[in-house]
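Appendix B. Worked example

We walk through a single record from start to finish. Start with the input: the chain for Sigma-54-dependent Fis family transcriptional regulator, Humisphaera borealis, length 464.
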Amino acid sequence: MSTAGRILVVEDSDTERRAITQILKSEGFSVFAAEDAEKALSYADEGIDLVISDVRLGEVSGMDLLTLWKRRQPATQMILLTGYSSVNAAVDAMKAGAYDYLTKPINPDELVLIVRRAIETLHKENEIDDLRRRLDQRFGLERIIGQSRPMKEVFARIQRAAPVDSTVLILGESGTGKELVAQALHHNSHRKKGPFVAVNIAAVPSTLVESELFGHVRGAFTGATDRRMGRFEQADGGTLFIDEVGDFELSLQAKLLRVLETLTLTPVGGHEDLKVNVRVVAATSRDLDDMVRKGTFREDLYYRLHVVSVLLPPLRQRTDDIPILVEHFLKEIAETKHTAKHRVSPEVMRAFVNFPWPGNVRELRNALESMMVLADGEVLTEADLPDKILNGSVSKSGQVDIPDMPLEVLERLAIMQSLEKSGNNRTHAAQRLQISVRTLQRKLKEYEAQNLIPASNDDILAEA
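Next comes the structure step. The output line below is what the pipeline stores for this chain.
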């Protein structure tokens, strides 16, 4: 069968139908023929790429056929054939979804040219649709791996927040996958066909942050030889992901707040305001509540960013997900890094589950990649484990390594981990922590009031 395209010719004149069919077959197309709309519709499920139809077919016209066919196969291209007296009808058909029209008598060269263009357009549209599907798979929820209860809550929150244009603040330690969440929010929103632009404030020199976000005009500063578009303009019509927003200098926070509130910006050195249509998703691994209390982060900006929040749990609070993350990374690394396929021994899996992973999911993936590159056999054993993981992060002095973070954050992590290990039973969690149930309840209420955890209910946080 020809790969040039499958074409259906619909023409009630036997002579013209045979002539068109012969021209197209000589060009290598697979051609089918029908004398009326009813016969034509019997081909609707036969993988037809292009329908060439006369406008005048009898009781069911070419216009009617266009409507009926598009209902069943909207992607199929259609070219209408018409006499000079019916050109207006053909133009109307193009407005209704036809690709083009030809006037009779048909010029063979013109026919072949338009047919090739229609087939090429169809193939390009199919490629674009395929790319979009692959992008959805790459950046959608499927890329965020997890089946634990904390991750199910994250998924539910993403699905509720994605369709709405509200600003989202993603909270979590470094390496928990905040950019993946931002991509999922974008690709599950009505902005998915627009750009997704990411900027990491921590990676931009403080003197260039304003220009990076808002752009600059020529001559704005030494070295500004041309007009430069900022990230907000680049993301127009789509989503701007501002990572590590907690690193934003206090002197510039008022300018960011103005843009978020008005969607209007002024490039560095410029005098004219520019309107942008952007949804902002921000993320931070820092404790913004503490920064607000200390006066290093504006309270009004915090509340403007914190319209909707998504809290990503650290890997040590979702150990049930480690086995499926390992399987996912083993496959991904083998495919992308061209390494041999591997599997892990039960001893290695136990070590992974027991390790606290201060670097979270990113650290797990990097550890696996290192082990796969250096391993001798296809099974990763304890001999392949980095010393840090093999020793369970216990130092030579016998002291357990504690992550470097504020005490109140460590306290919250300890409480949430105890609840997770206790099946979200408050009484059992309080016993683990050696505190009273009343103290635990008070802490949880404080976290809920600060939107650090989802609101509780009797099913989620039940007492014994």
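Two observations about the output. The domain at 407-449 is CATH 1.10.10 (Arc Repressor Mutant, subunit A). The first helix runs from residue 14 to 26.
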